[in-house]
Amino acid sequence: MIIEAILLTVITASTPLVIAALGELVTERSGVLNLGVEGMMIIGAVCAFAAAQASGSPFIGVLAGVAAGAAFSLLFGFLTLTLVANQVATGLALTILGLGVSGMVGESLVGVPGVKLAPIAIPVLADIPIVGPLFFKQDIIFYLSIALVVGVNWFLFKSRAGLKLRAIGDSHGSAHTLGLPVIRTRYLAVMFGGACAGLAGAQLSLVYTPQWVENMSAGRGWIALALVVFAAWRPWRLLAGGYLFGAVTIGQLHAQAFGIGLPSQFLSALPYAATIVVLIIISHNRRTTLINTPASLGKPFVPDR
Q1: How high does pLDDT run on average in the chain?
Q2: Contacts of 233 (CB under 8 A, 6+ apart)
Q3: Using CA atoms, how far apart are residues 204 and 12, in angstroms rounded to an integer?
């Protein structure tokens, strides 16, 4: 069925957006703004592909992607949390660095057949018409994305550690006065964001298109950043927004395939145009945005000041 095929591609296209945005959501909840999501995603993608090729195991590739994203985020953490560099400039530099390094590392991998991460079929449930293939016959990264949304939501709003992280994001000075480890917590949040971006990158090169193509993240890191604002820093809203943006991305591809009489360049720009429109709409509701935005977001913290 064509509807089922379209829905399957929507899920596959939405998964990396949800995972990368979820990692950035936790990072921003701690008060750190990391604009390097795109760079961490592409590093995760190339490392996952290379590791899967070398080992023959896509699962080792997934682990390599996660590790690469987390390690790359440590560079951002060191520069912004330890050396107190500007977070916006450092995040942009991280993206540029990631795109350059991934192109250099992956130069010999272009055109090499990929190792695809096979779907996991849940017995009985996978046989249900339409619903079965959509939700019960997916790759492990899809199931991880749902588990991460549930886990992050519980962590942020039900656990004491999550309360401390949100307190640090809202007022790092007050949190430090109360004895909370601001820098350590932010390092952990940044590493979690990097690991999620690396996992999203691994999904791109092992599931979405099981091959290596330079710049294959194609701006998804920027969409993930917009998703965090769109979701007002709430995991469940982020999940819905991720699938909305995924549907727009896949919709424009099918529109081109059906020969709709619009320029292909216009259709290709739709996902990014939708991102801009959503941000404009959100900006009009300043009260909701201010209530949900971590008050210390992007502000440097030095313990002895």
Answers
A1: 88
A2: 25, 28, 29, 292, 293, 294
A3: 9
> H or E stretch including 25?
helix 2-29
Q: Has residue 121 been placed in a domain?
A: no
CA 236 to centroid of chain Cα atoms:
14
CB atoms within 10 A of CB 161: 11
Q: What is the pLDDT of residues 258-276, one digit of tens each?
A: 666 666 666 667 777 777 7
Please give the distance of CA 214 from its chain centroid, rounded to a whole number: 18
Q: What's the domain count of the chain?
A: 1
Can you read off the two tokens belonging to residue 80?
């912004």
Predicted TM-score (pTM) of the model is 0.92
Domain hosting residue 14, numbered range: 2-116+126-292
CATH number of the domain that 32 lies in?
Answer: 1.10.3470
* E-state strands within the chain: 120-121, 137-138
